[in-house]
Amino acid sequence: MQPMRFEPVTLIQLRRDLMRRGAILATLLGEVLAGKRPPALAAMLAARPGARPEEVLRRALDQIERRRRLIDERSEDYGRCELCGVDLGAPALLEMPWADRCTAHAAQ
After folding, report:
1. 60: exposed, middle or buried (Cβ count in 10 Å: 0-12, 13-18, 19+)
2. Which of helix, strand or coil describes residue 45?
3. Which residues of 6-31 are buried (b: 16+ CB within 10 A; e: fewer)?
4. Each residue of 22-37: pLDDT tens digit?
5. Residue 19 within a domain
6. Is position 107 within any domain?
7. Cα distance between residue 8 and residue 67, in whole Å
8. Domain range holding 83?
9. What is the domain count for the chain?
């Protein structure tokens, strides 16, 4: 049996932080669908010029859900770049547990 890459307590924290981020994004999506333009959305939209706000938020929520599933499955893919497989490292994931790309592939 392969040892886990992360301590159980770290996985619990990462999952909790993922779920917190998901709740924030879901709230923003609800506001957008209600016709509001929340200020917290500006940075996300700036990163995706031309994209509709609800599209950006749904994509972000899908990313959160994929990461959560990997944690729940104890998958070795969690915390690795989806393109090259490099380990993102616990410190980076503790800052942004929904990360799915290394710095070399972040813009792709």
Report:
1. buried
2. helix
3. beeebbebbbebbeebbeebeebbeb
4. 999 999 999 999 999 8
5. yes
6. no
7. 16
8. 8-95
9. 1
Q: Is residue 1 part of a domain?
A: no
Indicate the pLDDT class of residue 77, thresholds 50, 70 and 90: very high
Q: What distance in Å separates the CA atoms of residue 28 and residue 24, rounded to the nearest whole number?
A: 6
The tokens of 11 are what?
């996985």
Q: What is the pLDDT of residue 1?
A: 40
End-to-end CA distance of the chain: 34
Mean of pLDDT values over 26-54: 91
Q: Is residue 104 part of a domain?
A: no
Q: What element of type H or E holds 72?
A: helix 53-72
Q: How far is CA 91 from CA 6, 20, 86, 96, in A?
A: 11, 18, 14, 9
